[in-house]
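During the second half of the funding period, the structural biology subgroup turned its attention to how the target accommodates small molecules. The most pressing case was 2-acetamido-2-deoxy-beta-D-glucopyranose, which had performed well in the primary screen but for which no bound structure existed. We therefore specified the complex as follows and requested a full 3D prediction, including the ligand pose.
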Amino acid sequence: MWMTNIVGLCLLALVASAEDVKLSTHATTLADKSANLAFSLYHTMAKEKDTENIIISPVVVASSLGLVALGGKASTASQVKTVLSADKLKDEHLHAGLSELLTEVSNAKTRNTTWKINNRLYGPSSVSFADEFVKNSKKHYNYDHSKINFRDKRSAVNSINEWAAKSTGGKLPEVTKDVQNPDGAMIVNAMFFKPHWEEKFHDKMVDTRGFLVTRSFTVGVPMMHRTGLYDFYEDTENKLFVLNMPLGQKQASMILIMPYHLEPLERLEKLLTRKQVDTWLSKMENRAVAISLPKISVEVSHNLQKHLAELGLTEAVDKAKADLSNISGKKDLYLSSVFHASALELDIEGNPYDTSIFGTEKLRNPKLFYVDHPFIFLVKDNKTNSILYIGRVVKPKGDKMRDEL
Ligand SMILES: *[C@@H]1O[C@H](CO)[C@@H](O)[C@H](O)[C@H]1NC(C)=O
Ligand SMILES: *[C@@H]1O[C@H](CO)[C@@H](O)[C@H](O)[C@H]1NC(C)=O
Ligand SMILES: *[C@@H]1O[C@H](CO)[C@@H](O)[C@H](O)[C@H]1NC(C)=O
């Protein structure tokens, strides 16, 4: 086990060195750990009864955890490493590694993808942020800081939402409807992610189709279509399809996992482990696939506070136990909310497609991948193996369609 890890790391290092920037071993380790966090966090969220769509960025969650480690002392800080399974990492390596990872995967120039990530720590009006903390959280995690009067709930909510909307170019209009606990600190991630497909969809081939939310509820969504060569796997035993859609210049890809027919996603979620996803990916075959994908924007805001506590971050969120005194120099704060909000836009845009294969044998008998019912998705980075996003779309926005039966 230990040996295979070493060999694995060396191989990773070799692959990485072929690219322009080589990641440090700390960043590589944290990419790996945050990929595990992706699955455990997804599962704690998916089991909540009233959760519909889920969109989480595990690498961004990891960097918010890094911020907690930066502001925390003693076990409040060390719990972060436990949640990340990175107990052996020194503090400076944790911060430098997470910082390096996020900088690498969110680099718009090399990645050719739109990903706006805005992070802010809100504190109550009484707090005074320590200079050292402000400096380091900006440097490592690109966090800025703001004081807010949480007692005036309405203006606090408005100012948080306005900041999120402004910093995402209007894509994410709302992070929260309410703020609780006027004495706590609040983490807010406001993001906008729009995949730039390695091969774009036809701009003229967009029409309105039904998306089945449940057997008795269908919404109308714009559907985009294209046929091309993709890595595809049909798991006949588990009755599901897996499709890999490369982004940019294949620096990352979006993996879609969809049951054959409409059904609640619980069954697939039981199968959803990192190992299983790797197994599916290893069985893929590059072949013609006719894809129909909703051209939609999904906006979701999750408060991760409770879920992170479930994964072991119990102290930072507990007013009686939290020691976040590196934030302010005093033991006067705890983490009352962790808002993790994203707008995900699926659109036609991408690189021009290869027209030379049109009409050839290669595109004969495509497999149909018709996304008209709930699915799970991952955005996986091809260089670091980290997971940029994991989530599910179960209920897109759209007008209810008349039942056809
Ligand atoms: C946090 O506080 C401790 C003790 O005061 C100090 O040694 C450490 O450097 C601080 N950490 C940061 C990241 O400022
Ligand atoms: C990605 O590349 C395409 C074509 O080279 C370009 O038009 C587009 O603006 C790029 N997008 C981003 C986000 O860099
Ligand atoms: C990862 O990148 C390599 C090299 O560019 C490419 O051959 C491979 O197809 C990519 N993998 C995915 C899943 O896009």
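Two results from this model are relevant to the next phase. The longest strand covers residues 217-235. Confidence is low (pLDDT under 50) at residues 6-19.
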